């Protein structure tokens, strides 16, 4: 039973060749030394500088086209793509119904703008698909699935969402560059890497935040030319979601003061104020938009220090007791049930505080917690977890770019697109609705149809769930009318749906 828990609750699901070592806790601990932060598939994807360069080029092209449109009157011409075999020499349509259906004229400049947008969107979608495929392949073949699960946990904790076009290509690089290298380090290092990554700076509008009393803010206000000002989004989410948690002793005034301290934190090529050189998308501090002065946040004074002012706040937040409680609660919920056991929360919080936020110390406390080893399944798998577990069970080693994107859209958990900074819910009620279950059943039937010829579900089941296969599931597999039906039943069995 413990091996099944290690494979499924701590890991991402067993593979056909996996064999229990008989020491599940040692197997989990050993993964901390075997984890690869940059496997080949992820190393081959584009990094944030390349993605940012393409975005900046697109923005520049769009800006030039809009200036051209503003400088010259529109020229209406027939749309060649909508006039059938017509064009310049086409016969005019007959009066009446044909005339009413004639396509509207298209301004060539608008057409150029639309084309530029479509080309940029197509390239970004390709980068996104490749990044999703790299993430998926890492999860499918990893020999350190416990650590891969933790990578995905932190990526959801520091959620960005691809609702914005700038984030579509940058969400993957943020996980690969800011989460993976620090998943076995200190929480403060991961926090710093995430808050300075262009994906987060753009998603929560930090890159365009301008201190009202800064040099740029005062100049723009004097001219009255355009609206610029303080943006509190990132400061608020750092306090509410990334560190302390909601309603944990800070006020609106603290959010505003923290936002003022953070002004000047931006991404090269995206922020407001004077243009800066450097690597596109890289973190940059721009003194000209930084709000001058000391800041008082949660009763503590942070002297004026430019970039270091917000950094000092972030350092304090990273080791705050409320942050330890927040992180401990989320981890306990992830490994021990939707209602996290208070004793386990206390244990993880203590490990966090005593170690100064050393994450492996916290992970070892999770492994040592008896609440995470109860025999009854404690979590309902999310669509991502279920899909990865199914493909590991089938021995899949790689998926084509686009395949996982489509599947996760179908199952209701698009990758890196929770639609909100809080990320996807980690609760059964979010994922266990009848419609969601039916979509998994349909997907399982497709997987089983393709894999049944090489897979014996009755032999595979004890490998996936050693000493944990229920009599009901075993009997259902025995009574199945075909190998395909048996495999489909296994993929949607209670053992596979829950962990």
3D architecture notes:
This is DUF1800 domain-containing protein. It comes from Sphingomonas ginsenosidivorax. Pfam families: DUF1800 (PF08811). Residues 70-89 are annotated as: Disordered. A hairpin with a 2-residue loop joins strand 3 and strand 4. The longest helix is centred in the N-terminal third of the chain and has 34 residues, at 108-141. Helix 23 (471-479) packs antiparallel against helix 24. A two-stranded antiparallel ribbon has the order 1-2. The radius of gyration is 26 Å and the shape is globular. It is an all-alpha fold and 499 residues long. Among the domains are: 1-33 and 378-497, no CATH class; 186-336 and 339-376, no CATH class. The chain has helices at 2-10, 24-34, 40-43, 48-71, 97-100, 108-141, 145-157, 165-179, 187-195, 198-203, 215-223, 233-242, 252-262, 307-318, 321-336, 342-354, 359-368, 383-393, 403-411, 428-431, 434-451, 457-464, 471-479, 483-491, 494-497; strands spanning 265-267, 283-285, 295-297, 300-302.
Give the secondary structure arrangement, pairings included.
Blueprint: H1 2-10, H2 24-34, H3 40-43, H4 48-71, H5 97-100, H6 108-141, H7 145-157, H8 165-179, H9 187-195, H10 198-203, H11 215-223, H12 233-242, H13 252-262, E1 265-267, E2 283-285, E3 295-297, E4 300-302, H14 307-318, H15 321-336, H16 342-354, H17 359-368, H18 383-393, H19 403-411, H20 428-431, H21 434-451, H22 457-464, H23 471-479, H24 483-491, H25 494-497
Antiparallel strand pairs: 1-2, 3-4
């Amino acid at each position: 039973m413990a091996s099944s828990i290690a494979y499924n609750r701590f890991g991402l699901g067993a593979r056909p060749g996996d064999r229990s070592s008989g020491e599940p806790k040692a197997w989990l601990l050993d993964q901390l030394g075997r984890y690869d932060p940059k496997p080949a598939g992820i190393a081959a994807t584009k990094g944030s500088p390349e993605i940012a360069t393409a975005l900046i080029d697109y923005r520049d092209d769009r800006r030039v086209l809009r200036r051209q449109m503003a400088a010259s009157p529109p020229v209406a011409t027939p749309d060649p793509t909508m006039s059938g075999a017509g064009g310049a020499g086409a016969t005019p349509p007959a009066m009446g119904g044909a005339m009413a259906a004639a396509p509207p004229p298209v301004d060539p400049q608008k057409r150029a703008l639309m084309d530029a947008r479509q080309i940029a969107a197509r390239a970004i979608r390709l980068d996104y698909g490749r990044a999703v495929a790299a993430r998926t392949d890492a999860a499918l073949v990893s020999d350190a699935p416990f650590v891969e699960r933790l990578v995905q946990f932190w990526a959801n904790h520091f959620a960005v969402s691809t609702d914005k076009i700038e984030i579509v290509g940058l969400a993957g690089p943020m996980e690969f560059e800011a989460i993976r290298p620090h998943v076995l380090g200190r929480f403060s290092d991961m926090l710093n890497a995430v808050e300075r990554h262009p994906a987060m700076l753009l998603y929560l509008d930090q890159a365009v935040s301008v201190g009202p009393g800064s040099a740029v803010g005062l100049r723009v206000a004097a001219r009255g030319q355009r609206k610029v000002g303080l943006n509190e989004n990132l400061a608020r989410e750092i306090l509410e979601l990334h560190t302390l948690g909601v309603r944990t002793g800070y006020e609106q005034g603290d959010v505003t003061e923290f936002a003022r301290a953070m002004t000047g934190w931006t991404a090269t090529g995206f922020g407001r104020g004077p243009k800066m050189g450097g690597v596109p998308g890289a973190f940059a501090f721009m003194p000209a938009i930084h709000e001058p002065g000391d800041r008082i946040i949660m009763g503590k004074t942070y002297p004026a220090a430019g970039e270091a002012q917000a950094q000092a706040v972030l350092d304090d937040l990273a080791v705050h007791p409320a942050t330890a409680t927040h992180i401990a609660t989320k981890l306990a919920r992830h490994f021990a049930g939707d209602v996290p056991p208070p004793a386990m929360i206390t244990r993880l919080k203590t490990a966090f505080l005593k170690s100064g936020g050393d994450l492996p110390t916290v992970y070892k406390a999770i492994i040592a917690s008896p609440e995470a080893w109860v025999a009854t399944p404690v979590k309902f798998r999310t669509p991502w977890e279920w899909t990865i577990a199914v493909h590991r069970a089938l021995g899949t080693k790689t998926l084509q770019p686009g395949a996982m994107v489509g599947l996760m859209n179908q199952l209701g958990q698009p990758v890196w697109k929770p639609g909100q900074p809080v990320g996807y819910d980690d609760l059964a009620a979010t994922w266990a609705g009848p419609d969601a279950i039916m979509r998994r059943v349909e997907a399982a039937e497709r997987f089983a149809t393709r894999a049944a010829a090489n897979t014996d579900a009755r032999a595979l089941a004890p490998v996936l769930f050693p000493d944990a296969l229920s009599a009901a599931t075993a009997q259902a597999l025995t009574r199945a009318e075909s190998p395909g039906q048996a495999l489909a039943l296994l993929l949607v069995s209670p053992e596979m749906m829950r962990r």
